[in-house]
Amino acid sequence: MNICIFSANYLPNIGGIERYTYYSSKELAKRGHSVTIVTSNLYNLPSKEVSEDGVKILRYDCINLIGGRFPVFKHNKLQKEIDKEVIGSKPDLIIANARFYFHSLHAMKLAKKHGVRCICIEHGTMHLTVNNNFFDYLGEKFEHFLTWIDKKYCKEYYGVSKAACEWSGHFGIESKGVLYNSIDVDEIETMLENPVTNYKKELGLGDNTTVIAYTGRMIPEKGVDTLVNAFLKLETEDKALILAGDGPLFKEIKQKDIKSVYQLGKIDFEHVIAMLKSTDIFCLPSRSEGFSTSVLEAVATRCYIITTKTGGTKELISGGEYGTLMDSNSPEEVFSALNDAVNHPEKREKAVKNAYQRLIDNFTWKKTVDKLIDIIKENG
Question: Quick one: which of 178, 245, 334, 343 could link to 230 by a disulfide (CB 3.0–4.6 Å)?
Fold first, then answer.
C-alpha cells in the first residue's frame, strides 16, 4: 500500500509526534509498504530526500512559530510541487498527525479534494499552553475554531491512547479507536547491550548512587522545576538527578548550579538510552501528555516510573504494581512519591518487571502497525 503521513514537526526535531511518525513509518516501510512523510523544513534540510529506511521525506518551506512548536507552511511553488507529487503517487491513505496544525488541515483538504481516504491521529490530552493566561485563552479559541474546520474535511479520528480519544470528545469528536504510541524494544535492547557511554562513570557517581532522571522538553507544563525542588528536599547523599532535554527552563536551572543535579542538555537517542541504563527512577510530573514516549523508553530500560495520571501513561502504569501514579504534580506529592520509591528498592524491582512485561505485550510498533493495516483493510 501507499501511505502518506503529514506531520508538521519531524526529525531532527525531538518530540512525541516526531518519534511516532518516524517509528510507524519505519515499521510500514519494513513490511514493504510505500511511505511518504510530508513535514516542515525547520533546519534548512533538502526539500526532498529518501531515508535509509526507504521512506520519502518531503519538506514544505515554513514560518517557525513558538520556538518550533508550531510551524506554519508557506503556500508557494514548492508546496504545490510537493502536493502534486503526493497526489500523483496515488496514496491509499493520508494520515494527519495532530489536528491543531494548519499542516494537518491542509492534508485533510488535499485528501478530500482528490478523493483520498484520510484519518487524523490525536496526540494530546489538553490544550497547548505557552504559560500565559491571555495567550492560552486565545490559543484555546483558535484550536476549537481550527478543529471545527477540520471536521468538515476529515471524518475518521483515532488517538495514541484512550485518554487522547477522550480528549477528542472535548471537541465533539467520537474517536474510532486507539493507535497506541509504542516503542521499538529490539532497537533499545541492542543499545543497552552496547551503550555509547556509562553516565555514572562520566558524571563521577558511585555505583551505589540512586539515580533519578527526566528526559523531555524543559518546559513548565512538564513539571521539571517541581521535580528539581522535590529532589532537593530529599536527603541527597548518594542520590543524583539527571535532566536531559532543552527548553526555557534549562538556563534557569543551570544558573542555580545545584549539587547532585546534572543537566545534559539535548542529547541524541543513543545517549538517552545510555542515560536511562544508569537510572533507577524515572520521574515525569507532567500536567499534559498524550502518551509519553519518554515513559515508554524508561520502562524499556527497566526504570521505575513515577508520573501523573494525565494522558495515556496510566494505560501502561495502571496501578501500584507497575509504578507510581500521582493525582497531581504538586510539590508535596512529587516529593512523597520520590521519597517512597528511593526508600523501597524491593517495591521498585517488582514494578519494573511488571511494567516491562506489560510494555512488550501491548505497546510495540509491530502491534500498532498491525492495527493500522487492519483499519485500512477493513474500510478500504
Answer: 334
